[in-house]
From TrEMBL:
The active site is at K364. Residues 46-185, 218-359 form the SIS domain. This is Glutamine--fructose-6-phosphate aminotransferase [isomerizing]. Homodimer. Its EC number is 2.6.1.16. Catalyzes the first step in hexosamine metabolism, converting fructose-6P into glucosamine-6P using glutamine as a nitrogen source. GO terms for biological process: amino sugar biosynthetic process; carbohydrate metabolic process; fructose 6-phosphate metabolic process; protein N-linked glycosylation; UDP-N-acetylglucosamine metabolic process. GO terms for molecular function: carbohydrate derivative binding; glutamine-fructose-6-phosphate transaminase (isomerizing) activity. It is found in: Cytoplasm. The lineage of its organism: Bacteria, Pseudomonadati, Bacteroidota, Bacteroidia, Marinilabiliales. It comes from Gaoshiqia sediminis. The chain holds residues 244 to 612 of 612 of the full protein. It is an enzyme of class 2 (transferase).
Length: 369
């Protein structure tokens, strides 16, 4: 049945552990029983327009912006429509060019973020088709949009977003796969394979959750660090950003997420034997590049904590500590890799005596500009 707060010390931990169920709740009814087709009822009427879009602009703030970045990579790789991702607070003020044929999509857990709502209204006034991916049913953004998809993650209470993020990525992944198929960019065979990969995610998330004692042990080791660096490439670059955001939000440890290939242009200056470097990787097309990035970190005595899959023998041997995740197709790997990082941030924050569910200076929903 549903998890109660009483079973957990904090809402955030409860919400992290709910993810096998919330991810299922998000795709339930959207993957047809024969697993050959994705149906997004809320977009049915506008889908022909989206299929012919010149460009998709995705806006959001905070964690929702990270989900948007995953979507950019997915939509461009599979559906081959140009995508731009932007912070709502920048987009709304910078006089962006919006053409007929552009689709503007807002991602928002609460559906109430002031900048995101205002950015959408502006895009609507300029003639774009506007879409929303929200968690809160009937929220302002959901009401403002022409069409949308709810994430169905259930109420999220912890200020640091966890299950809402994986629900957003789930919806956006289904959206990208469907768009790719309708545009004739992927075969029915690949479409069904990708659907199968999505259906396998909840059990794999469960496997990661079961490894929580190990993640806690690693957290104990690094809880007193001053800074942390998170690196990833491809689909796992936004996960590196999200992992760093989780840590700084709730533990107040300074953490930075970076594209691993960009490390040599700045962050590498920070690497010494006090710096934990969390490497988010999978055996994807970026793997060899990530391994060589990590050799650079090791050569400077950085402490490497690596998210690794079972078939990974390279990083495994270079890392000081490991977070094991099951193997998956790269297109769904973000949904797995983020989970140990949520738990890592959670345990560090608890060990540092922080108010995990209500971190200082932050709000669940930012309804001011
Ligand atoms: C606040 C919350 C974040 C959230 C962001 C965007 O900063 O603390 O967890 O990601 O707002 O919120 P939204 O409801 O628009 O997704």
């Amino acid at each position: 049945g549903d998890l109660e707060k009483g079973d957990f010390e904090h809402y955030m931990l409860k919400e992290i552990f709910e993810q096998p169920k919330t991810i299922q709740d998000t795709y339930r009814g959207r993957i047809k029983a024969d697993q050959k087709e994705i149906v997004l009822g809320g977009l049915l009427d506008v889908f022909p327009k989206i299929v012919n879009a010149n460009r998709i602009i995705i806006i959001g703030c905070g964690t929702s912006w990270h989900a948007a970045l995953v979507a950019e990579y997915l939509i461009e790789e599979y559906a081959r429509i140009p995508v731009e991702v932007e912070y709502a607070s920048e987009f709304r003020y910078r006089k962006p060019i919006i053409n007929p044929g552009d689709v503007v999509m807002a991602i928002s857990q609460s559906g109430e973020t002031a900048d995101t709502l205002a950015a959408l209204k502006m895009a609507k006034a300029q003639g774009a088709l506007i879409l929303g991916i929200c968690n809160v049913v009937g929220s302002s953004i959901a009401r403002e949009t022409d069409a949308g998809v709810y994430t169905h993650a259930g109420t999220e209470i912890g200020v640091a977003s966890t299950k809402a993020f994986t629900a957003q990525v789930t919806v956006l992944t289904l959206f990208a796969f469907k768009l790719a198929k309708e545009r004739g960019k992927i075969s029915q065979e690949l479409y069904e394979q990708l659907i199968g990969e999505m259906l396998a995610i909840p059990d794999k998330v469960q496997t990661i959750l079961l490894s929580h004692p190990n993640i806690k042990k690693v957290a104990e080791k690094y809880k007193d660090a001053i800074n942390a660096l998170y690196l990833g490439r491809g689909y796992l670059f936004p996960v590196a950003l999200e992992g760093a955001l989780k840590l700084k939000e709730i533990s107040y440890m300074h953490a930075e997420g970076y594209a691993a290939g960009e490390m040599k242009h700045g962050p590498i200056a920070l690497v010494d034997d006090n710096l934990p470097v969390v490497v988010v990787s999978a055996k994807d097309s970026y793997y060899e590049k990530v391994v060589s990035n990590i050799q650079e970190v090791k050569a400077r005595k950085g402490n490497v904590i690596a998210v690794v899959t079972e078939d990974d023998n390279g990083l495994r041997n270079m890392a000081n500590d490991l977070f094991e995740v099951p193997e998956s197709h790269p297109a769904v790997a973000a949904l797995l890799a983020v989970v140990p990082l949520q738990l890592f941030a959670y345990y560090i924050a608890v060990m540092r005596g922080c108010n995990v569910d209500q971190p200082r200076n932050l709000a669940k929903s930012v309804t001011v500009e």
